[in-house]
Amino acid sequence: xxxxxxxxxxxxxxxxxxxxxxxxxxxxxxxxxxxxxxxxxxxxxxxxxxxxxxxxxxxxxxxxxxxxxxxxxxxxxxxxxxxxxxxxxxxxxxxxxxxxxxxxxxxxxxxxxxxxxxxxxxxxxxxxxxxxxxxxxxxxxxxxxxxxxxxxxxxxxxxxxxxxxxxxxxxxxxxxxxxxxxxxxxxxxxxxxxxxxxxxxxxxxxxxxxxxxxxxxxxxxxxxxxxxxxxxxxxxxxxxxxxxxxxxxxxxxxxxxxxxxxxxxxxxxxxxxxxxxxxxxxxxxxxxxxxxxxxxxxxxxxxxxxxxxxxxxxxxxxxxxxxxxxxxxxxxxxxxxxxxxxxxxxxxxxxxxxxxxxxxxxxxxxxxxxxxxxxxxxxxxxxxxxxxxxxxxxxxxxxxxxxxxxxxxxxxxxxxxxxxxxxxxxxxxxxxxxxxxxxxxxxxxxxxxxxxxxxxxxxxxxxxxxxxxxxxxxxxxxxxxxxxxxxxxxxxxxxxxxxxxxxxxxxxxxxxxxxxxxxxxxxxxxxxxxxxxxxxxxxxxxxxxxxxxxxxxxxxxxxxxxxxxxxxxxxxxxxxxxxxxxxxxxxxxxxxxxxxxxxxxxxxxxx
Length: 607
Ligand code: M6R
Known about the structure:
Elements: E1 3-12, H1 14-22, E2 31-38, E3 41-48, E4 64-72, E5 87-88, E6 94-102, H2 105-114, H3 127-138, H4 142-151, E7 155-163, E8 170-175, E9 180-184, E10 187-191, E11 203-206, E12 211-216, E13 219-224, E14 235-236, H5 252-258, H6 260-268, E15 272-273, E16 278-279, H7 286-291, E17 294-299, H8 301-318, E18 322-326, H9 327-332, E19 341-347, H10 353-364, E20 368-373, H11 379-384, E21 387-389, H12 402-421, H13 426-447, H14 450-461, E22 465-470, H15 474-489, E23 492-497, E24 515-518, H16 525-537, E25 542-547, H17 551-556, E26 559-563, H18 571-589
Parallel strand pairs: 17-18, 17-19, 19-20, 20-21, 22-23, 22-24, 24-25, 25-26
Antiparallel strand pairs: 1-4, 1-10, 2-3, 2-4, 5-6, 6-7, 7-8, 8-12, 9-10, 9-11, 11-14, 12-13, 15-16
Helix pairs in contact: 2-3, 3-4, 6-12, 6-13, 8-12, 8-15, 12-13, 12-18, 13-18, 14-18, 15-18
């Protein structure tokens, strides 16, 4: 949700900054801009729409020692050039980029206007440069003026600032929106996440909430908002440049779909303890798992769908009563959380504001939180303090794909681990582990048949509405299939419980509304085939995901795709892949911008 990139060092140009925010474009892409601190003032460039090419070099004659850039996902004010960041003070000598929401912006704006400040945009962000300008009138040290201004802000922010009177440095602050510093040779960088830093350095520092920093080409200094000093550990980015490039695929989403055999393997690598029929999850305190009496999963979007599958896994394998909540609902619904409730926060990015809010609420109520995250060092991972990384590698496509299937593998490992502590037999434990180890090869077999799915996707691309349905484990998988289709193709899609169809949604069935039925689960096969009959009897057109070798189910559906056989609870891992490919090819057939679907952003850091 907005990407920030900053650079302190010799030879900063607009091209360097554009290259930086281009790698953050998945965080927001409705408008963008940059500011270079030059000796004679701030050179500013702002544009509406995706980061372009020809115009990006408009400031190329200008080579400076500090600059900031921003790619935006609008919160306050439409995507226009005036609302694009950076924003400036009245003198035009201070330029600010911001990620997050300033909740008290209206009061601050009124106060500043009363003091004579003139605003040029509708954004909440613009109060920041004016506030710094105001503080600087009485505080001669710019760093102190910056600190004083930041202290007055309420809300969430990652902020980066350049100013023309000290054109060799950047100032940064963090509260609730991520900020990473990169330590290069003769340059120090900052960014909303590590992706744009890898081209310059692998050594990074993660700012924590309530910290500010000043960066020069030689390094950085950090302080707390209270003025205390902090020493930050240097960490190393685990991935390299190819991991964040498309590598010959037309879209990141397709690349990430095809990475699943590898990402699934990475999710369980080194975690299977065959001798004990269990999983080793080093990042979680064993006593916490042993003493848990119930679980509460908090997450959003695709991670919420993974959580719904996690509930079935934890209840079935470990007999632990489990509730699942959207992070925002959890935070505001006054949930019952006991000290023996294990709160599990699932988040690919580890930065989702709603999920983070839920973690904080749970901890405040005395529960322990365990994170299941992809991004190492992310806020949710750090605030939980313990958890399991899914190790899916960077996921750049806005539509989450490989992270989902890796989340499911980690949830299955957690369920086996908790189950073995609570009576799941060695034999059953081993069966699950064997089945988990087969998933990468089975995923690869599905991917070899992509062309079948590309052809079937034509049926979806011609529709205005599509229903997805399934029972038990296949219901959240259906929700995820529908979410994939709607977010990248803009076709209206609904996921429903197959048993619920007859209680209402079946009224939508007609020949123009394809129904994708997930019908591979052994435990409820007969019931799901019954649902296919009901849909067909009403003129509905069924695309079914079936188990390999199920000729009866294949014959019932208009089109079918067989997934390799596995244990029912693991089916969603395999079924996710054809559903992702159906959505992808439908979106491509409609000419959609698959990696940058409208109105969305990869990392949702506002509530
Ligand atoms: O990073 P998170 O897993 O916390 O993100 C949660 C959702 O914002 C995310 O899954 C979103 O729904 C994706 N666009 C789904 O493809």
